[in-house]
Design a protein that fits this description.
80% helix, mainly alpha, 260 residues
Length: 260
């Protein structure tokens, strides 16, 4: 119900529905996720400050209903990642940096717990690599959003090298790198290069990522490929799966279509 109301634009009613779901859920992870849906619903309205306030309140609540230290750490880490998205897209550089730092510290603490249970050196290396890549991706995203393009390029070089080590087991291991690289090209004012790189992402994986699909559409529009750009925007407009990408770009898409 909350999702349907959100996509109808009835945000206050959606948050009432999410609160009912939160109160009723016996499953702790689902309880946490419903609270995240409610907090991030403010992003659809571009109310970044309210989103951050709600996330801070939700983090506090999650530390009370979490039933283990590790679960509480995972809840806190996910909130800090969401705070980064809200703060960075409101161009709060200091706040976004603080959220990344908190996310990094929590990720490393969780990784130590995971490594203590690991049965091999290979598994411990995989855990470390996953944390390093996740932290690196946020730092690269930060650099792109705050126009630190040289820093982004330097980080991307290292990020690609690590991602390539996973190609043997995952043919899509480079997709996160490609998305960030394309985003960087667009923000630097190179839509042609952005299109070239985005075109290397498997279509299904781009379709499932409306955040990057939106920037792909902007790149297409910038080079005059208007029909293709509009087609992508209309696809996003009809995408009714609630995730943080939808929250950040859905109404930007509607504005683009309205001004066509």
């Amino acid at each position: 119900v909350g999702h349907a109301l959100t996509f109808k634009g009835d945000y206050e009613e959606a948050r009432v529905a999410y609160k009912r779901g939160f109160d009723a859920s016996p499953d702790l992870w689902w309880k946490f996720q419903v609270g995240m849906y409610s907090a991030q619903s403010h992003l659809f309205e571009w109310q970044y400050g309210k989103a951050v306030i709600s996330l801070v309140e939700h983090k506090k609540a999650s530390q009370e209903f979490g039933d283990s230290d590790e679960l509480k750490l995972r809840f806190a880490r996910n909130v800090e990642e969401a705070k980064f998205r809200a703060l960075s897209h409101s161009l709060d550089e200091q706040g976004a940096r603080a959220a990344i730092d908190a996310f990094t510290a929590l990720s490393e603490e969780i990784a130590e717990m995971e490594k203590s249970r690991a049965e091999s050196a290979e598994e411990r290396s995989r855990i470390k690599r996953q944390v390093d890549q996740r932290v690196a991706s946020l730092n690269i995203w930060f650099d792109i959003l705050f126009a630190k393009f040289d820093d982004a390029k330097e980080r991307l070089s290292s990020f690609k090298a690590v991602a390539e080590t996973g190609l043997a087991s995952d043919p899509n291991a480079l997709v996160p790198y490609l998305k960030l690289r394309a985003h960087l090209h667009l923000m630097e004012g190179n839509p042609e290069q952005a299109i070239e790189v985005y075109s290397n992402v498997p279509q299904t994986l781009l379709d499932d990522d409306v955040y990057h699909s939106y920037f792909f559409a902007l790149a297409k529009k910038a080079v005059g490929e208007l029909d293709e750009s509009r087609q992508i925007l209309e696809y996003i407009s009809g995408y009714y799966f609630y995730d943080w990408g939808s929250a950040l770009v859905r109404n930007l898409v509607e504005d683009q279509l309205a001004s066509w």
